[in-house]
From TrEMBL:
Residues 427-480 are annotated as: Disordered. This is Uncharacterized protein. The lineage of its organism: Eukaryota, Fungi, Dikarya, Ascomycota, Pezizomycotina. Residues 454-480 have a biased composition (Acidic residues).
Amino acid sequence: MSCNMSTPATWLFVPRVCHTLHNSVRGNSMLFKHVYLTHFDKPARTNVNWEQNLKDLVRLQAVCHQPDIQTKRSELAFVYDTVTEALRNACVDGERATSSTTHFYSRNAALLSRLFSTYDNQYAFLERSFLYERARAELPHAGTFSSPPKKEHQMSAKLHCLYGVPMLYAQRSPHETRQGKMSPFACSKVYDIRQYTPLTRWGPFMDDGSVSVDWEKVEAILTSGKPLLLVSGLAVISPLPLDEEEVVDLNPLDLQDPYGVTGTWLRVVCFLDYTDFFDFNFSAEQALPANIPRRAIEYGEATRLILMRITIDRIDPPGPEDGQDLPVVHFKGVSRSLDDSWDENANSDLTGEINAKVGETGTVRLTPEGEVRWTTFSIFNGQERWRSESIQLGGAKSAKGVLGNWFDKDFDPRGPTGPTAFWKISERSSGHTENQRNLLYPGGVFTDNPNYDPDYESADDLDAGSEDGSDDDDDEEEDDEVNIEIELLVGGGVQIADAQSAL
């Protein structure tokens, strides 16, 4: 029998045929390695338990094909561990997924994508957080936040985030109704200023000072509406590769950068009218204990689309409070709003950090648990004004996006604050045109925008732009703006990829 012609599951039954085969297969690491690499990605690391990994992936498929949902639900911890390990072992180089993308095809990710594409598996594993239990009224009437959050809630939320496509309804039915929408519950968490404390760094972290990711906060951003609704469930923006004949002047620091910072990024910033924000957080009826969730809300959110062009400033070794596997990367750049160039908050200079400590400016790093943390500071007239803390889904160089929160750089307890997300859309950080002042995007110099101001003078340093303000437009007008900008991006050459799962 040739293992090249067999499925992984077949080989797990071989030891049961006879004692001879049992003794030949048991503990045969080289055999399990060969079978594993025939069907799955070659891990970048060397310390891999080939037999256990193969058995776990076979069992994962059996669990996901189990018809009884309650049986599936009891396997959440196993599914979480196996998916996490499979993604750690996923392909990091090789052939591109398609000719028009820069990310690599992964057999591990393709398998997970198939397994979690069904509603039963999504319900059993991806919709188990406090957020979904609350939306489905599965909690007591006075359901409270757990401190610390329950492990099963966090595991489910992380799996959902790694899947990358938000589950926008609490229940699936042929007629999904307004009452079943997740966004009111997600917005209730995202805009609840009690979530933002010095211990959480005002970002999507646990309220214990550890800088450990609170995946239920990240999940709330994922499902809150406009940050991901622009592309999720519909499409995911993927980076465009450089033309084969194009010559790019690489900064020597780029060769040392493990995060893939340099390039052009599309950013989404959302916020409430401050009157709504204040009413939600500070009215008499909102004087609730910290462990009681605020009411679900459907205020109209304003949205800004921003292009960021960033480059590396310097690279330092990790500090004692950082993850030690990767260095600290400092970056700088410029940002430009796609829709409100007349707004003084919409264009800015930017300095930032992937994983910086609170209070620092212009630096970057990993969290102690190994997640990629982005911190950006928006600078206006030479002064820092806004800050954001975000987590990159899937780790360094992942195309799934960076999700987090923006807020006043001085941590104003009155706010405002809101969700933000950004994706890399091009490896280019600058263009080879005569006008180097203009922010470039994959289709060329950004001049097709009717709001483009050719007299705008950008500085040498920069960030993510408008992270505040009010908007008098109603939801329909906002949606029209979003549709126009998406069409503009597509027309300009930004690839819109099929949004199968991001796993």
